[in-house]
Design a protein that fits this description.
6 helices, alpha/beta, 25% helix
Length: 294
């Protein structure tokens, strides 16, 4: 396969699971109707972004794999004949929960699961209270459209995660995401944050000669505890090519479907002239396994 059409479904989320799922399903079906063979949804797309506070009742939102969400999205992947990247709050056992991405093959079967490895703990992003760090490693998921290097949100800030996926043969880097601004930040700070988010991921594309797909949610979501100002998710879902070039980018205010055709031969061509993997000094990187060099 020399090319792949990908659909990115950027949509808002609120407290209505039914409404959120309807938005996801509409995006999947529209993308498939327009020729997409791979569809990617945002992080935790079936619900409100609940980690804005720490509340044990929110654990009731978690579900097993297999479970209600996997059953539903398996069916739509099969209906539309697409490879589908989804996201959910996984209940693995009592007291053991993950932020997980489930990838479905076009026949509806589960191609693989990725559990978010890097877990943030920042104001309004109290994910360490809810999510156990992933234990499945950085392993691409084999599908009929290629080997997908699926990572999740906070993982996107770590070059090590992208590199390990590339070293394991990933052909695409995919980041379901839920990231936004504190509405109290001034415009300059907001723009710095957004630019950093885009830039670091374009850097992963360049350093690994792989396309990067980042899919964010959009819109203001209130703090469930009504203490903080909420989060305004900044959208800006995008696809970068193997040299970091923008292939498509959504806006920051509304629901959008991005459709992009990827040339799957480009990575090989770029690596032949920018052979970063060849020139890595693997004999000199041992200190990367240390927390810090004193």
């Amino acid at each position: 396969m020399n090319s792949l059409t990908v659909a990115l479904v950027q949509h808002p989320c609120d407290g209505s699971r039914e409404k959120n799922i309807a938005a996801s399903l509409a995006g999947i079906r529209k993308g498939a109707a327009l020729g997409a063979k791979l569809v990617v949804l945002p992080e935790l797309h079936t619900g409100h972004y609940f980690p804005q506070n720490e509340e044990t009742a929110h654990f009731d939102l978690a579900e097993p794999i297999p479970g209600p969400s996997t059953e539903l999205f398996s069916a739509v992947a099969r209906e539309c004949g697409v490879v589908l990247v989804t996201s959910l709050f996984e209940r693995r056992a009592a007291g053991l929960y993950h932020n997980s991405s489930v990838v479905f093959e076009k026949d509806g079967g589960v191609a693989g699961v990725y559990r978010k490895m890097h877990i943030p703990d920042d104001p309004a992003f109290y994910e360490k209270f809810y999510f156990t760090p992933g234990d499945l490693g950085f392993n691409p998921i084999q599908t009929s459209v290629g080997r997908l290097g699926v990572l999740v949100c906070w993982d996107q800030w770590f070059p090590e995660a992208a590199r390990l996926m590339a070293l394991a043969g990933a052909e695409l880097l995919i980041y379901p995401t839920a990231i936004g601004w504190d509405p109290r930040d001034d415009v300059d700070e907001q723009e710095r944050q957004l630019d950093a988010w885009v830039t670091v991921q374009r850097g992963h594309a360049v350093a690994n000669a792989l396309p990067v797909i980042a899919v964010n949610r959009v819109g203001l979501e209130a703090d469930p505890a009504e203490i903080g100002p909420g989060i305004r998710f900044w959208g800006n879902s995008f696809v970068a090519g193997c040299q970091g070039e923008f292939l498509a980018q959504a806006g920051r205010e509304r629901e959008e479907l991005l459709l992009v055709e990827l040339d799957l031969r480009r990575g090989e061509a770029v690596r032949r002239v920018w052979p970063f993997l060849r020139d890595r000094r693997i004999d000199a990187y041992g200190d990367l396994l240390r927390r810090y060099r004193e």
